[in-house]
Amino acid sequence: MEMLFIFLLIGCVTGVLAGLLGIGGGTIIVPIIIYTVTQQGMPYELTMKIALATSFSVIIFSTASSAYSHSKHKAILWNEFPYLSVGTIIGVFLGSYFVHKTSDIILQVIFCLFMGYTIYTLLFSKKNEADRIENVDDPVITKPWLSGGGVFIGFISSFIGIAGGAITVPLLSTWGFNTRKCIATSSMLGVVLATIGAISGIIYGWNKTEITDYYLGFIYLPAFVGIGITSVLFAPLGVKFSYKLPVKVIRQIFAVFLILVVSKMIHLIISSGSI
Q1: What is the Cα–Cα distance from 159 to 107, expressed in whole angstroms?
Q2: Where are the bilayer-spanning segments (predicted)?
Q3: Low-confidence ranges of the chain (pLDDT < 70)
């Protein structure tokens, strides 16, 4: 019961972050799940795979709630979305295959390296990239580039258990789209990405977890229920903040959040004795 209460609280934070930053909250869910299942005696070689699958299952709800709220502001790039989503689906399937062939320690190192890169781009990007003019016309990006970008987003996200916001937002921003449109579109794309990632986690994890009473494949059900419920309720609150706070402030909040997460993740890796 105590653990379920903790998951409910985590869901509140996850929901706000999903709406505010266009992410699903995987960067906070993954370390929490790793710690939880490790304490339960789950074999180390399965912990990261459980964390990734569980993260994706929760992200379905947080990103869906966030995307619905963003759609009310007509901020989603619907013309570009179909090509991004097709590429993302391909990327997730490819990435999921490699994830389940890769050791947990390598997956965790990849997670930390990518978060470090994201922090750098958020804090040191050029000012004109951080402060796109709100009413500027959307750039024209060719279909192959959009689909290729989707493959990249899906593939990388598979290795770190996120909805792709940490990749999608910088990528679309680099192409010239308004930051808030990037966040909104990232939320919608996260629904597609997380759904495929969760399904892959169920398939690859079927009958592989030893504590079977609380698992569906690699999905840890208490976290799925607890975080999922409150993340849906709190995502609209994050969306409201995203339309009131300056873009620069949003990016700084995101960077500080990721610094805390990476620090915790590095601590978990070191304390495990794997390196």
Answers
A1: 6
A2: 6-38, 50-69, 81-99, 106-125, 145-172, 184-206, 218-237, 249-270
A3: 1, 21-25, 104, 125-136, 161-163, 209-212, 247, 261, 264-265, 268-269, 271-275
Check residue 129 and give its pLDDT.
Answer: 44
Cα dihedral value 171, 173, 235, 62, nearest 10:
-10
Q: What is the 3-state secondary structure (H, E, C) of 31-96?
A: HHHHHHHHHCCCCHHHHHHHHHHHHHHHHHHHHHHHHHHHHCCCCCCCCCHHHHHHHHHHHHHHHH
Tokens encoding 261: 């997460």
Amino acid at 163: A
124-143, pLDDT tens digit by residue?
Answer: 765 444 444 455 677 889 99
How buried is residue 210: exposed, middle or buried, by Cβ count under 10 Å (0-12/13-18/19+)? exposed
- d(C-alpha 255, C-alpha 122), whole Å: 6
For the entire predicted model, the pTM comes to: 0.74
Q: Which residue segment(s) compose the domain that 247 sits in?
A: 1-272
Q: Are 161 and 113 in contact (CB under 8 A)?
A: no
